[in-house]
Amino acid sequence: MEIGKRIKELRVGKHLSQEALANELNVSRQAVTKWENNTSKPSTANLLALCKIFDISLDELVSGKVDEKKNEERGWKSGNKLRCALLISSIIFSLFSTIAVINNIRCLPPKNVIGYADAETGITVFGTPTYLYLLCGFTIMLIIAIAFVFLRSNYKKWRRKNETS
Q1: Is the whole model's pTM more than 0.85, yes or no?
Q2: Which residue has the higher pLDDT, 165 or 55?
Q3: Taking phi first (over 0 means left), then psi (-120 to 50 degrees means alpha), and beta for anything else, what does residue 122 get?
């Protein structure tokens, strides 16, 4: 992979404009454009600065080969924040859903009773509370989102591995 294409790919991946990257490197936007179009090459100092900005090694920047081990170590610092948040929230909502379902089952009336009379408020009819449906539904959506995120990242790893082969 050409270095210009790699710089552009990394810049877009970090959601940086050419101008923002140029400001971080103290160069002109036109210089970044020339690098990305392979009209000119960045200096060694700029290559090292790019490595620092993109949090990759010089070898990864120049050759385009990704060090999977280092990438996984770095994962929790950068791209896996969403995964971690989804996983934690899914566990919490799963616990709440389980507790709510158990509590609802524990408080069920006998089979031949559909409700009870309460002198203060009138008649209350038993049934599964709406919040329980919402809580379980939200938990299921979180689990599906986690599965999607993990499957997508594994697919990307698999695709990268097969492209290099």
Answers
A1: no
A2: 55
A3: left
